Amino acid sequence: MEKYPIEQIHVPVNFLPEYPYHEAMGCTHDLRDEGLGPFPRTEHAVRVHRAEYYAIISHLDEQIGRIVAALESTGKQDNTWIFFTADNGLALGHHGLFGKQSMYDHSVRIPFIAVGPHAPAGQRIATPIYLQDVMPTTLELAKVSKPAHIYFDSLLPLLSGTSTAQSRPIYAAYYPELQRMIRNHGYKLILYPKAPVARLYHIAEDPDEQHDLMGTSEALPVARKLFGELLELQQEVGDTLDLASVFPDLANQQRGE
Question: Bridge partners of 171?
Fold first, then answer.
């Protein structure tokens, strides 16, 4: 903690005292992560929690360093794959949220680092992936056939450069009826069926997700396209929530209207 004095911690640029749809999305006062901070949020509380977060990351980094040092000392580093990732990030003040239960990048865009015998060092790959892709990747490394029911894909083609795909729709859901998201074509569509509210962000130009495009002239065609892709992904994964009846303006194009 001494490495991160509170007075030197910055509040995120998209800080809000309160997210306008926090109740409809399920991020209420009694939700575990959200209850860690006061309502409305204060800059002081955000700085305290972010300092603790940075300290935990530094501690984790030290422990990973011990693992890497052990591999190097035993001569096994050249025959070992390491995948470093996480199941979520924490908002810690972004958009007035504290936890992981949102579709914003501060929570869903996790770190993913691969180190191995055939992974080029220092390369960054822009293709969106799922956390669960790590399982079929390790199956392929172990020369085990991927079971037919596994939805996710091995990352070895991306890591070896034999696949250069840069577009892959990413679907996400929180609770049966509270939140849905699709990310594709440089945009992200977030749905709060209980509100009902749709939010659209041009991630490529607005990485901090500060400018909701819904209601602008460019929004509806893009949102409808993403909505149609989201409905297809729902069918693929068995998501039965009827979004078309909740968001008829987005569904009209899908019905030929």
Answer: 182
Between CA 199 and CA 212 the distance in angstroms is 6
Q: Domain range holding 159?
A: 129-163
Residues 31 and 83 in one domain: yes
Whole-angstrom distance, CA of residue 245 vs CA of residue 257: 14
Residue 199, class by beta-carbon neighbours within 10 Å (0-12 exposed, 13-18 middle, 19+ buried)?
buried
Q: What would the pLDDT profile of 126-154 be if each residue is shown by its tens digit?
A: 889 999 999 999 999 999 999 998 989 99
pLDDT tens-digit map of 154-187: 999 998 877 766 678 999 999 999 999 999 999 9
**Which candidate, 28, 25, 32, 30, places its Cα nearest to that of 177?**
25
Q: State whether 175 and 246 are in the same domain.
A: yes
CB 89 within 8 A of CB 109: yes
Do residue 184 and residue 141 come from a single domain? no
